[in-house]
Amino acid sequence: MQVDQLYQEIILDHYKHPHGRGLREPFAAEAHHVNPTCGDEVTVRVALDAETVSDVSYDGMGCSISQASASVLHELLSGRSAGEAYAVHAAFVELMSGRGQVTPDEELLGDGVAFAGVARYPARVKCALLPWMAFKDAAARAGVEFGAGSDDKNERSEVKTA
Amino acid sequence: MTTIAIPPGMPQYDDVPRFDVEVVRADFPILGREVNGHRMVYLDSANTSQKPRQVLDALREHYERHNGNVSRSVHTVGTEATEAYEGARGKVAAFINAPSPDEVVFTKNSTEAINLVAYAFSNASIGTGGDPRFRIGPGDEIVISEMEHHSNIVPWQLLCERTGATLRWFGVTDSGRLDESNLEELVNERTKLVSFVHMSNILGTVNATARITERVRQVGALLLLDCSQSVPHLPIDVVDLDADFIAFTGHKMCAPSGIGVLWGRGELLAAMPPVFGGGSMIETVTMAGSTYAPPPARFEAGTPPIAEAVALGAAVDYLSGIGMRAIQWHEKELTAYALDALDTVPGLRIFGPTVPVGRGGTISFALDGIHPHDVGQVLDAEGVEVRVGHHCARPVCVRFGVPATTRASFYLYTTTSEVDALVRGLEQVRKVFG
């Protein structure tokens, strides 16, 4: 059944048992993103230690896809160098924008590969990207160079530094 | 066995007109399709309704046989198109018991109809000479409600921003009804316009209008009813409603998208300044200035959605053929059935009236701890199409403390077995997320 592809065990597991949930201090910057079509929201904080993203903490409310995605974001990017974090971020965005045609790199994306199925549901891609876009804004605000501006004009963003 | 004697005078509903829902379903080609391997169960008619073959045929026939522009051609097809377009206006007028077809203004949708009134207020308030009923400024008030669709909130917020008037609103009670407890204070001598929803698109509530109408008349304000959800589902009589304007849209009542209606009292429309300028809405144009056509033409600048209007006429014929009273009753029985059925789902909370009285066949709910997007996605996998989100009525979600809801909405082609499919689908949702 198709819906199984969407709600992979991995996604449901992250949703029911989120990793690293909660907003922690200290942090370099945070961003709050909202999906106006469904009201989902997430706040992402980035903590830096020299060139390393020492922690990605988050809180939010929303559907299983957006909340599991935040959990995976935390898991994949905490402790990475800015360069590595950028590579993972780019790979996740590419996967989600691929309409199911992109084969994910498991080495790079870890549990993020479970979201490959979500990419086939255009209405849900935004849910999966919500925390990642908030992370990007927070990182940029914290001074981590992360390429061009926000990809999604439908999302409002409030960014503040600590 | 005991025989129960029914006391005389008790309503037994034997005289309520009915129809065969399977015969009706056969008119809707799309209802035969499958979604994700299941027969489609379409429970999103409050969003947009499906279209019967009779309406699709009218659309095709117009383009295949009678296509020409309206109100300007002397040739045969232009004349036929004009007759069909104006004929549709007459059908719509009769459908809502409007005293004259000239009181029916065709728009793009309800949103445009409401904005038309809002901008007429604006235009009448610039300079001098505007009709005092439409002049608005600082110290004046507009009253809406917390139950409105965004289309009956934002145009008034914008009007208040432009003119300095104040926007006020009725609250919503815990059971999902309009809170009229402060009616006397809320609607007062400063009130210029009261605009509220006849049937809520999220709670399903059908608002009683008489008390508010009486108060509106006392203070000399105008009354607009957003009938987007009521005109498709119940018999509507604008004389009986005693409103000044009503707005509704074709696509929710078996017609195509792109056609809506603003009905207004003839003398009020005649006093309203134009909003869109262009062809068809003028009397005489000189380089120094123009004079305007009487309503409804004054408010229909440019080439209108001709085929869509004709198809709306066909939709009105279709609905009238079945009977609005019969449709209303069908949905009432379905709603009673669905409220009982949904009550058996553990952890399900309904927003809005939980009795099938003073409400229509639109039911919003939350499933404990499961986000509506997830509910909608699993239901779709079972072929059940519902709406999830804030339904363009975010203040209602805020009022009930939820970011979004899941909404099932019915129409004349909905069956009790489709309600059963919804309940089975919700069991599946609980299995996936339980």
Automatic annotation (TrEMBL), chain A:
<feature type="domain" description="NIF system FeS cluster assembly NifU N-terminal">
    <location>
        <begin position="7"/>
        <end position="127"/>
    </location>
</feature>
<dbReference type="Pfam" id="PF01592">
    <property type="entry name" value="NifU_N"/>
</dbReference>
<protein>
    <submittedName>
        <fullName>SUF system NifU family Fe-S cluster assembly protein</fullName>
    </submittedName>
</protein>
<dbReference type="InterPro" id="IPR002871">
    <property type="entry name" value="NIF_FeS_clus_asmbl_NifU_N"/>
</dbReference>
From TrEMBL, chain B:
<dbReference type="InterPro" id="IPR010970">
    <property type="entry name" value="Cys_dSase_SufS"/>
</dbReference>
<feature type="domain" description="Aminotransferase class V">
    <location>
        <begin position="41"/>
        <end position="422"/>
    </location>
</feature>
<comment type="similarity">
    <text>Belongs to the class-V pyridoxal-phosphate-dependent aminotransferase family. Csd subfamily.</text>
</comment>
<dbReference type="InterPro" id="IPR015421">
    <property type="entry name" value="PyrdxlP-dep_Trfase_major"/>
</dbReference>
<keyword id="KW-0808">Transferase</keyword>
<dbReference type="Pfam" id="PF00266">
    <property type="entry name" value="Aminotran_5"/>
</dbReference>
<dbReference type="InterPro" id="IPR015424">
    <property type="entry name" value="PyrdxlP-dep_Trfase"/>
</dbReference>
<dbReference type="InterPro" id="IPR015422">
    <property type="entry name" value="PyrdxlP-dep_Trfase_small"/>
</dbReference>
<keyword id="KW-0663">Pyridoxal phosphate</keyword>
<protein>
    <recommendedName>
        <fullName>cysteine desulfurase</fullName>
        <ecNumber>2.8.1.7</ecNumber>
    </recommendedName>
</protein>
<dbReference type="InterPro" id="IPR000192">
    <property type="entry name" value="Aminotrans_V_dom"/>
</dbReference>
